[in-house]
Design a protein that fits this description.
Elements lengths: L20 E5 L2 E10 L4 E8 L1 E4 L3 H9 L18 E4 L5 H23 L8 E5 L8 H8 L7 E6 L4 H10 L4 H5 L4 H5 L4 E7 L1 H5 L5 H6 L3 E7 L5 E10 L7 E3 L14 E7 L2 E6 L10 E3 L2 H30 L6 E6 L4 H13 L19 H10 L8 E8 L3 E9 L4
Parallel strand pairs: 6-7, 6-8, 7-13, 15-16
Antiparallel strand pairs: 1-2, 2-3, 3-9, 4-5, 8-9, 10-17, 11-14, 12-13, 16-17
Helix pairs in contact: 2-3, 9-10
Length: 417
């Protein structure tokens, strides 16, 4: 695994990057960095909002939220976990946060449309991963404010950190069970269409009232949105979705969205919520005391995600090799794996365990300035790697999140129409 950015000085903030376009929304700083690869046919934007806290400044904020001292034995070595900054907003009411996040989301969508060289009215679908939405119409509100037509399809995915990857998977793989459970197959419907796929996470708001010191130190705000035409810019090769309920409650998350079934045997709730709206909701092990989040320490997260995660990647890699033989492309290799950045140790251990199985993947670490930003993570990592990619490259995208949910697949990159 490439350790790029791990040695970045703690004083360097995302806002200090020369390519970042800075604005304010109701006095809150917002930074966005557009990325475009016309050769591949993918573009987008990523960034964050709120004040920037490096590893030295963060404990004071954490102690304010805890209402007391952060014990030494609960202080995480955040640099060792791959993070040097994260971004937070403080002191807003829920309604103020909703207005802020809708406006921020709309700006990200408009910036992504611009990076693609499109007009808002050309967008035919928006698929957003949101772990903890403020309102069930969040995607619709963001899209409307961005100027995207009401008739464009809006798909909201709530599968924790896996949400944005799940959205991209839905748009590319017609064999997914979720696609079969809907009145229409999203992958078939969206093939050849101009779509936006992203993750938007106001996690500062979600963890603000938490007393979980790990969550308060790890999570922060961010968003990443890509624009592409499925079947042209990306073509699905092989992949799978996998879910297994976190029966021990290692990572407990309050669901700020409805889930009809609430059964450990029926984790995914698929529902068409309107003429142009779909919601994909994943069951979570919720904290019994009403808290928003409770999580084990870093080693608990390793145990939760690494074993199943390695098995999923291994299975997809084997399916990919079989598909290559069918395509007559046995010599082809995966150029890069875009992996959710839960923390550096998790990704490093996955890499080592995969190597033991004879699978060597380039899994660069790309998000040190953000902290764990849940569903925004994979989209940001993809955009940061985008300038290095070329038509014909094979890319593995590996998402995983609380619940627990996994979406892992390999795509071939194409080009502009």
């Amino acid at each position: 695994m490439t350790d790029n950015n791990l040695d970045t000085p703690a004083s360097i903030s995302f806002f200090d990057r020369p390519q970042v376009q800075r604005e304010t929304v109701n006095g809150i700083p917002l930074g966005m960095e557009p990325v475009s690869n016309r050769e591949v046919g993918i573009a987008g934007v990523y960034g964050t909002w709120g004040d920037s806290y490096n590893n030295q400044a963060l404990p004071e904020l954490v102690e304010q939220r805890l209402g007391g001292t952060l014990p030494d034995n609960e202080r995480l070595n955040l640099a060792e976990l791959g993070f040097v900054n994260r971004h937070h907003v403080t002191g807003l009411s829920l309604e103020e946060n909703r207005k802020l996040e809708v406006e921020v989301g709309a700006r990200f969508l408009r910036a992504a449309v611009k990076a693609c060289g499109w007009l808002p009215e050309e967008v035919q679908a928006v698929l957003l991963g949101v772990s903890a939405p403020l309102g069930l119409d969040f995607t619709e509100a963001v899209a409307r404010q961005a100027g995207i037509p009401d008739g464009a399809l809006k798909v909201t995915i709530h599968k924790a950190c896996d949400s944005s990857v799940s959205g991209l998977h839905l748009a590319l793989n017609p064999e997914l069970q979720e696609n079969k459970d809907l009145p229409f197959n999203l992958a078939e419907l969206l093939n050849g269409k101009k779509i936006l796929v992203g993750g938007m996470e106001g996690l500062s708001r979600f963890v603000e009232s938490s007393k979980d010191s790990n969550a308060l130190q790890l999570f922060g705000n961010a968003a990443g949105v890509i624009g592409l035409i499925p079947g042209q810019a990306m073509r699905f090769i092989a992949g799978k979705a996998h879910q297994v309920f976190d029966t021990e409650g290692v990572l407990q998350v309050r669901m700020l969205y409805p889930h009809q079934h609430r059964s450990q045997d029926d984790l995914i709730d698929v529902k068409q919520t309107g003429e142009h709206s779909v919601r994909i909701a994943g069951l979570q092990y919720e904290p019994q005391d009403g808290a928003n989040i409770k999580m084990a320490g870093p080693m608990g997260m390793v145990k939760l995600f690494v074993r199943s995660g390695v098995q999923v990647v291994q299975g997809v890699y084997q399916a990919y090799q079989e598909r290559l033989k069918e395509m007559g492309s046995s010599g082809k290799t995966i150029a890069v794996a875009i992996v959710h950045h839960a923390n550096y140790k998790i990704n490093r251990l996955k890499e080592k365990n995969l190597q033991k199985e004879g699978i060597s993947l380039n899994m660069p670490w790309l998000l040190s300035e953000f902290g764990n930003v849940s569903a925004a993570s994979n989209m940001i990592a993809l955009l940061r790697q985008l300038p290095e990619l070329h038509p014909g490259d094979h890319v593995m995208i590996d998402g995983f999140g609380a619940g627990t949910y996994y979406d892992t697949f390999v795509v071939e990159l194409g080009g502009a129409a």
